[in-house]
Amino acid sequence: MVFYDTWPKIDPQHLLWVLLAVLTIDHIWEMILAKRQQLVCLGAGVIPEELRAVIPPEVYHRARVYELHKMELFMWKHGIDLVISLAELFFGFYPFVWSLATQTLGSVTGDELWISLIFVLYLTIYITLRCLPVLLYDKCILELRYGTQTRMPCYMYICMGILSIILSQIVLAPLTLAIVFVVRTIGYFFFLYFWAVWAICTLLLVFLLPYLCIPCIGRQVRLPEGPLYLDVKRVCDLTGFPMSRVFIIRTKSTQYSNAYFYGSCCLKRIVIFDTLLYNKGLQPHELQPHEVGRGLFNIQVAAVVAHELGHWKNGHFYKATLIMKLHFLITMILFGLLFHCPQLYEAVGFKPGLCPIIVGFIIVLRFALTPYLTLANFVMLWNLRRFEYAADRFAHFLGYSMPLRSALIKIYADHMSFPVYDRCYARWHHTHPTILQRLAYQQRLDIEAAYN
After folding, report:
1. Who is most buried in 17, 81, 119, 229, counting CB within 10 A?
2. Residue positions forming the annotated binding site
């Protein structure tokens, strides 16, 4: 393809060392973060004072053991992945698999389109086998150490691996064909085409979400009149949000309880999961025994709605949409620049002039773009947490500080997880502030309000 000739000359060997360094720094940093979280878990033997009334000691201990297990597995996973990935780059793994795919179809066709299909199949099989060291370490060592054994026979893991390979090809095969076809058809600026298609699809999703996605979760109805309606109406009237845009989802599952705001103009809406309501808004005899007593009282639900109204008033939906589109545009521009660098292919072992399209996608997304994607992810997570604090501040401004605080604690009590996190680890991994951070923030707002 002629459009690979525009890059300045770069020594492929130097580029290889850059890729190896980027990969090493990224994985070691993730391992450092996991180690910090593990040390926090080890030191958090006592239940935080704010949550002692809602967490039984045995539940807290179980969550702590699970978090320790998860962090140690996370560190080993990144350590093993680092060693294997370095070997893949250094010893020319991708050219080897591409050569194998080419030889497989050698007597049939030499078309890159079909070779890419076989390449992706071989790569999927390899990635499945690549997970074995981590799986074995988890099942044979970590689960015994932490007492978290899962009773699943070995043959089930083999069946799951084979099934995942087969099912993944249903998605990957047409996706691979589409990528190669589009790049070959459009040429140099294909990455802008991908961005435009993604931007249009996400915009359409805003319109189609209530009609296509939500029915998969449950049945959506307007909030019916009653005591809850009056409490929610009171907070909506404070902000001018129409009650006709407040909905309840009668869910098919009890695993998720929340409320969310999305959309704009005539499409804006606040959606409340029925699992957020006390006893799902039903009589106790209509529930399973484990469902009785779960959920929030009406004033607590109103406080959660006040938080969601904070997202609306602060324009978080527009801001998040704009940021995501800008991030993806920058990603695609950088991707396009790196994708067209012939030395990048030579750095991982390909002969000069051989630049397979699908391999370019893998190398750029997995290795070359790592510095930008890592920093962009950190910035976006920081921004999402900032949005949550702003929405909490708005709920406090409306006078719902105590109900929101009690709602956060009750939601946590219904869906318990380990509550103590290292600050640095949380900054790099969490979309929301932790439960302890949000409670402390409400307390700080109370102190500020008392002095003002």
Report:
1. 119
2. 307, 311, 388
Global pTM reads 0.89
Reduce the DSSP state of residue 221 to 3 states and report it: strand
d(CA 222, CA 232): 12
* 239 shares a domain with 137: no
180 and 210, same domain (yes or no): no
- Percent of the chain whose predicted confidence (pLDDT) is above 70: 93
The last residue of one of the domains, among 133, 166, 186, is: 186
Kindly state whether residues 21 and 110 are assigned to the same domain.
Answer: yes
Name the residue with tokens 């030191």. Answer: 43
Token pair of 439 as six digits: 């409670």
Inter-residue contact 379 to 320 (CB < 8 Å): no
Q: What is the dihedral of CA 52, 56, 61, 63, to 10 degrees?
A: -90
381 contacts 427 by C-beta, under 8 angstroms: yes
Do 180 and 240 belong together in one domain? no
Q: How many domains does the chain have?
A: 2
Give the domain extent around 248: 189-339+369-452
- Strand ranges in 237-319 using DSSP code E only, listed in sequence order: 246-251, 259-262, 269-273
Residues in the chain, overall count: 452
Q: Please compute the mean of the pLDDT values over residues 56-64 and round it to a whole number.
A: 89
Residue 143 shares a structural domain with residue 193: no
SS3 assignment, position 250? strand
DSSP assigned state of 226? S
Structural domain includes residue 447: yes
* Binding-site residue ranges for Zn(2+): 307, 311, 388
Residue 356 lies in a domain: no
Choose one of 186, 216, 233: the last residue of a domain: 186
Question: Which pLDDT score is estimated for 253?
Answer: 66
Q: Note whether 222 and 206 are same-domain residues.
A: yes
Provide the angle, in degrees to the nearest 10, between the axes of the packed helices 57-90 and 12-43: 170
pLDDT digits (tens, 9 = 90+) for 388-423: 999 999 999 999 999 999 999 999 988 888 999 999
CB atoms within 10 A of CB 451: 6
b/e per residue 266-285 (b: at least 16 CB within 10 A) = eeebbbbbbbbbbebbeeee
Task: Look at the block and give the residue holding tokens 């939906």.
Answer: 317
Looking at the annotation, which residues are catalytic?
308, 392
| Same-domain status, 180 and 278 | no
Q: pLDDT digits over 2-55, tens only? A: 445 566 778 899 999 999 999 999 999 999 999 999 999 999 999 999 999 888
Query: Which SS3 state, helix, strand or coil, does residue 1 take?
Result: coil
What are 138-190's pLDDT values in tens digits?
776 666 665 555 556 666 767 777 888 888 899 999 999 999 999 999 988 89
Residue 241, by phi and psi: left (phi above 0), alpha (psi -120 to 50) or beta? beta
